[in-house]
Amino acid sequence: AQTVTQSQPEMSVQEAETVTLSCTYDTSESDYYLFWYKQPPSRQMILVIRQEAYKQQNATENRFSVNFQKAAKSFSLKISDSQLGDAAMYFCAYRRIGNQFYFGTGTSLTVIP
Amino acid sequence: ETGVTQSPTHLIKTRGQQVTLRCSSQSGHNTVSWYQQALGQGPQFIFQYYREEENGRGNFPPRFSGLQFPNYSSELNVNALELDDSALYLCASSLRGGATDTQYFGPGTRLTVL
User: Fold this and answer.
1) Minimum Cα–Cα distance from A45: chain B residue
2) DSSP states along A36-67
3) Are residues A103 and B104, on separate chains, in Cβ contact within 8 Å?
4) Is B82 or A1 the better-scoring residue by pLDDT?
C-alpha cells in the first residue's frame, strides 16, 4: 500500500521569508502524480501545486515550487516570500493514475508577522 | 465554472442513526470521491464513483455506501452511526480521462455523532 509521510507536524516562518515542507512517500509504481494541498481554517482543501512523476522538471506555481526527487521518493514544497495568507495546514498527497489519493498527516504552517 | 459544493455544512446525529451527505461536482467533472478526515489527520479515502458505479473503495465497512446520479452529483450514506464516525467528510470531483486527473475538493460536511 502507498504511504505518505510528513515528518513535520508544525512549522513556522517569518513573513517574507522562505520555508520548506517535507514529504516522503512509498510506492512501487513508476507513473503517478504528487500534490500539495492547503487547508485553511475554513477547511476547504485548495490545490497548491501538482507534479507528474514522469516529468523531471520541478513544478512551479508563482511563490510555490517543489523539489521532486523520484529515486529518493521525496517531494518537498518550498514557499518563497511567505505571506500571512499562507498560514494553513498543508497536505502532501500521492495518486496513482486513475486511482485514489493517499494523504499525509499534514504540516501546520504558522506565518509570523 | 461552479466549484464543488456540499450539504449540509454541519450535522449532529446520535449513535445508531443514519445520515446522508450530498455533493455536487464541479461542472464538467464526471468522477466523485469521498474522504473522511478525522480531527488532526489527513483525509482517508472512502470510495470513488464514476459513471454511477463505485470504482474503488478504501478500508471502510459496508455501512458506508454511496450513489452517483446522472448529473454526476453524489451522496454518501452512513448507517448505524458510531461515535468514531464523527469527522469532516470531504467530497472531491475530477475529470477521468482529462489532461490533469486533479481532484478539486468541496468545503466539507462536519458530522458529529453523540
Assistant:
1) B105
2) EEEE-TT---EEEEEEETT--SPPEETTEEEE
3) no
4) B82
Nearest chain B residue to A94, by CA = B102
pLDDT tens digit string along A14-70? 999 999 999 999 998 888 899 999 999 877 899 999 999 988 899 999 999 999 999
Residues B82, B114 contacting (CB under 8 angstroms): no
Q: List chain A residues with CB under 8 Å of B91.
A: none
Spatial CA neighbour of B109 closest among B15, B7, B12: B7
* Cell numbers placing A57: 522538471
Distances (CA, A) of B62 to A8, A32, A74, B45, B80: 34, 29, 35, 14, 11
Q: What are the distances in angstroms from CA B15 to CA A10, A14, B19, B114?
A: 34, 45, 11, 6
Q: Tell me, what amino acid is at A55?
A: K
Cβ count near A73 (within 10 Å) = 16
pLDDT in tens, B38-89: 988 899 999 999 989 998 888 999 999 999 999 899 999 999 999 999 999 9
